[in-house]
Amino acid sequence: MKFLKNLFNSIKSILVSLILVFVIIFMINNREIITINFNPLPFDSIETRLFVLMLFFYILGLITAILIYSNSLIKSTIRNIKQKRQINKLQQQINEK
Known about the structure:
The protein is mainly alpha-helical. The protein has helices at residues 2-29, 50-96; strands at residues 33-36, 46-49. It has a two-stranded antiparallel sheet.
């Protein structure tokens, strides 16, 4: 069992290292400075690196997906609790007869 735990920790470390390497390569390849212009709005234009903008929208999408998924997860959890209560009531009725 200890061997499996060490193996999983090693695999986890390797995967995290690979993800960090890919993120660094991504940042190096997309380091151009871009200008975001808000023409009809009264805001000034923003200059930022391309990878910052891409990571911002990635994180925004991730947060949106988590919020959508958590909503369905909460609904299904509430439905499961109600069904378990109903099952318990029905089992009590069966045991009383």
